[in-house]
Amino acid sequence: MPQASYLRQALPVVLPIMGLLVGLTWYVKDNGFFWDSILLASKYGQWYYITRFSTLFVPHEIAGYPPLFGMYLAAGWHLFGKTLPVSHFLMLPFLLGFVWQVYLLARRFLPSSWIFAGMLLVFLDPTLLAQAAQVVPDIVLLFLYLVCLNALLQHRPVLLALALVFMAIHTPRSQILLSAVFFSQLLLFWLENGRISFSALGKLMVPFLPAGVVLLVWLGFHYNHFGWVGFSRSSDWGQYAAFVTPKGFLQNAGIILWRLLDFGRVAVWLTAGILLWQFRQHYTLQTKQLLILLLVPLFTLSVVLVWFTNPIGHRYWLVVYVLLGLLAAHLLQFLPRLKIRVGILVLSLISLVSGHFWVYPEGIAKGWDATLAHLPYFNLRHQMLSYLDQKQIPWQEVGSDFPNLASPADTDLNQDQRRFPLKDLSTQPYILYSNVFNGFTDQELAYLQQHWRIVHELKKGQVYMKLYARPDR
């Protein structure tokens, strides 16, 4: 197809989605770092920024992640200034590239008249939009993984090898997903050819060799410097790397299922599942390819994560959500009646949008970084900090919890190094609580509500913050 004709087909589909993400980035440009991005983006980036890349390794207490994303942010700050808007706009190349990669997949698996519908099922996912509104390495991981998939499908081994190298030094999860890319390639080859010879297997492994070498070199350097790889018991997340008990294994399996269905995705899974059963005797080659692309990362991540005490986040499954949306759209095209197709599509989209409004009781931890419901938090936090300063309440007297324990220097890139201590209801005169904080136990919340008094309260949307004081204050 001529390039001009190709672009004429692509632009009406990709430009609205790109415009949505550019607008979202502009809207959130002043929002601070949130949730795990405080560590993985801000603290890592500022370390490389301050040290001017003079060392490859971050301090021991925050070590455990490869350097790629932090170095990227630090380089961007050196070029354009260390500000929150710059940080958010540094994500745009990956967001826009991600749109193009999804379009390439949709173009392969969907008829031209149904591509935009499929992309809506992808880009209206609450967790994807929430991550797109933050400065996070998961968006980069998602982009790189989709580049790998398109390179596999287009038989472009050089592009595949390049994307795999970046995955090898991006995050621990991207390193795990290297194996998912390989097994996806293996199964796709078997699907197309019916067999895999040793010579074919060797040829398939060639694009993975550079990434393997880079990964081994990084792990070797890391072990030589720190004396460990993966995690350290003394690191910030060392407690989350222990093996689970049999009960914990079952709980993790349940949490994985919950994460996959949560925030409106249940409708998309039901659509895909019912249609897969309905058309089970008539799967096309494309249907089987999409199933491989969906199930391999789902299985790979599940097999690894289910064994550990690490909290399992919604964002871990971004790749799965993308492929789920494409699979559902692909299967919908086989329904004979257009009205039924459109009706199911609309219901699925409404279900996804509703995910931003799914609120659980206080006793149930919610993935606040996984829907746009978290957006009011930043403004409320600034208002509460201003109130504390106006009332001359020292921050060291105010207990709080994650993600409100980092200093404004880390969350907002300013010069304020003050921080709140971790909550201790037995010693601290004030407690700052928000329903965004998942670390308060049911007993602590009940004790605050029954025995402490609220001295200041703020609410916007689904987010609220309360400053509690002891009755004798």
Automatic annotation (TrEMBL):
* The keyword Cytoplasm is assigned to this record: no
Q: Where are the transmembrane segments?
A: 6-26, 87-106, 112-130, 175-192, 204-223, 256-278, 290-310, 316-335, 342-360
Which keywords does the record carry? Answer: Membrane, Transmembrane, Transmembrane helix
Q: Does the keyword Plastid apply?
A: no
The protein's name in its UniProt record: Glycosyltransferase RgtA/B/C/D-like domain-containing protein
Q: Which organism is it from?
A: Rufibacter tibetensis
